[in-house]
Amino acid sequence: MGEIFGMPVQVLMGQLAIGLINGSFYALLSLGLAIIFGLLNVINFAHGAQYMLGAFVAWMLLHYLGIGYWPALLLAPLIVGAIGILMERFMIRKLYHVDHVYGLLLTFGIALILQGLFLNMFGVSGQRYPTPDALRGMVDLGFMFLPIYRGWVIVASLAVCLLTWFIIEKTKLGAYLRAATENPELVRAFGINVPVLITLTYGAGVALAAFAGVMAAPVYQVSPIMGAEIIIVVFAVVVIGGMGSLLGAIVAGFGLGLVEGLTRVFYPEASSVVIFLVMAIVLLLKPSGLFGQAR
Predict the structure, then answer these.
(1) What residues have CB less than 8 Å from 194, skipping those under 6 apart?
(2) Residue 138 in 3-state DSSP?
(3) 20 to 30 A from 227, CA-CA: which of 23, 168, 212, 217?
(4) Helices and strands per DSSP (H, E), number in the chain
């Protein structure tokens, strides 16, 4: 098949595919964080726990109710999004007008509580979630065999990210969302219930995390610590893309997944820290992030 930079093409492409898969989860989670921070000004440290919750809700639906993967893709985000709505309504809403650190501490505490509850119920060992029958097997791309489910993760994640970006940035609903955070009195003049709009926005950001959790369930084992393992990386991705920038979250998520995959090929020892090195460089050159604007 040949070599690129002295590396077999199959190995290089395989790592790039793995990078894109990881990047898909980075992009979905970063987009949810960017929505919550950009529109609500809340640093949602519970995002990793909500990602874990999405995976566990899908697992519970399957093992306790016999509800499979495809319905879970819709039901799990709705269930976890509803939990997020309750969190916003009764806890987070009280912190909108105080320093960001209070929201961070509250959501960090919520994350620890959720992780502790699931560790107590399921332990540290992961639960297996089967790949749906329709997405099993491999597809021959000529230069590599790509698992069908992995390809689905990449395509579906990109589609959801772009659709979310389009709704918020290019539609009237998105304009109302942005206006509600900047000039709520004006939006109320149009007869729109601003608190409800803000609550639904938080729920939508949480639902994106849960959707990523359902998508990740067949790839990784469903574990109480799966959110804690990814959330620090996702925060780094958000910082690189620009806090609150939706496009930045998407581009940085997929792009840094590829960078991570390439690093595993050429310098594996640095693969676990390369994203943080990129973050340090970006902060030195452009503190607001690649797509962010100085506040």
Answers:
(1) 180, 184, 187, 188
(2) strand
(3) 168
(4) 11, 4
- Give the C-alpha distances (Å, rounded to integers) separating 253 from 29, 76, 161, 200: 9, 23, 10, 24
CB 249 within 8 A of CB 30: yes
Q: What Å distances lie between residue 281 and 24, 28, 54, 120, CA to CA?
A: 23, 23, 33, 40
Could you tell me the residue range of the domain that residue 50 belongs to?
Answer: 3-285
Q: Look at residue 290 and tell me if it is in a domain.
A: no
pLDDT along the chain (295 residues), means of 10: 61 82 95 89 92 97 96 97 95 86 92 95 90 91 82 96 94 84 78 86 95 96 92 94 91 94 87 93 92 70
Return d(Cα 246, Cα 182) in angstroms, integer: 17
Number of folded domains in the chain? Answer: 1
Please check whether residue 179 lies inside any domain of the structure: yes
How confident is the model at residue 3, as a pLDDT?
60
Q: How many C-beta atoms surround the C-beta of residue 239 within 10 A?
A: 24
